[in-house]
Design brief:
With about 240 residues, the protein is an alpha+beta fold. About 20% of the residues lie in helices and about 30% in strands. It has one domain: Umud Fragment, subunit A. The chain is globular, with a radius of gyration of 21 Å.
């Protein structure tokens, strides 16, 4: 009896293994371990994300895709052909516009229901009044630092924003320059920046993606539209 159970379990295991191999080979089920904080706080470094090509990409989905873009800073871990995972913000026909760090799609606030990482300017005194555990979490996002002797930059998600907004004066940090090639791919770019751009209409067969960690994400602002044929799948567990 025990031998039959052992054989049965072996057969089931072999079948599941074969199905998994087929799913990965066809793209029906792929999984990725996240190496960067570009989608913090929603997707954290070290998280596993599962995707499928059986689901049609839609706004607000996280999608996995390949890109030939090579950034001089991140080339060591993001060479040409790397797979990225970011939030789908615009589909064909949508009109994108970023106004002082807030994204509008077809003139509606896309960010209203999202928990994003945004950066704020604070005074020296306020910077050092932040709890150590919050300072550490913000630093992990890539955004807790002093930019002068009297001004610091903090990165807060919605929870930290709620905690500190009544205690310190948080001034949204708005990037005013092109930030290492922002929109260099777009010939009609009239000096757009990561926090102010558009209106930009998405062409057929293309998508526009952004990282939830808006000031620490390599996304469509830098490498352009994502082509439909380059999409590997849609996230199932995010």
């Amino acid at each position: 009896m025990a031998k039959k159970i052992f054989i049965g379990l072996g057969i089931v295991g072999a079948v599941l293994f074969i199905l998994l191999v087929i799913a990965r080979f066809t793209g029906m089920l792929l999984f990725y371990k996240i190496p960067t904080p570009s989608n913090e706080p929603t997707i954290k470094v070290g998280d596993w994300v599962y995707t499928t090509n059986l689901k049609e990409p839609a706004s607000y989905n996280f999608i996995a895709f390949t890109s030939t873009y090579v950034d001089s800073i991140s080339s060591d871990y993001s060479p040409a052909g790397s797979i990225y995972l970011q939030r789908l913000c615009g589909v064909a026909g949508d009109v994108m516009e970023m106004r002082n760090g807030k994204l509008y799609v077809n003139n509606k606030n896309f960010d209203a229901e999202l928990n994003l990482n945004n950066q704020y300017k604070v005074t020296n005194t306020e910077f050092y009044s932040i709890d150590e555990e919050d300072m550490n979490s913000g630093a992990a996002y890539g955004g807790m630092y002093m930019i002068s002797n009297d001004t610091g930059i903090v990165t807060f998600d919605n929870a930290l924003l709620k905690k500190y907004r009544s205690k310190i004066n948080l001034v949204p940090f708005i990037m005013t320059d092109g930030a290492n090639g922002c929109f260099a791919w777009y010939a009609k770019n009239p000096g757009w920046t990561p926090d102010n751009f558009g209106p930009l209409k998405i062409p057929a067969g293309c998508y526009f993606v952004l990282g939830d960690n808006r000031h620490n994400a390599l996304d469509s602002r830098y490498f352009g539209f994502v082509k439909k044929e380059n999409i590997k799948g849609v996230a199932l567990n995010k």
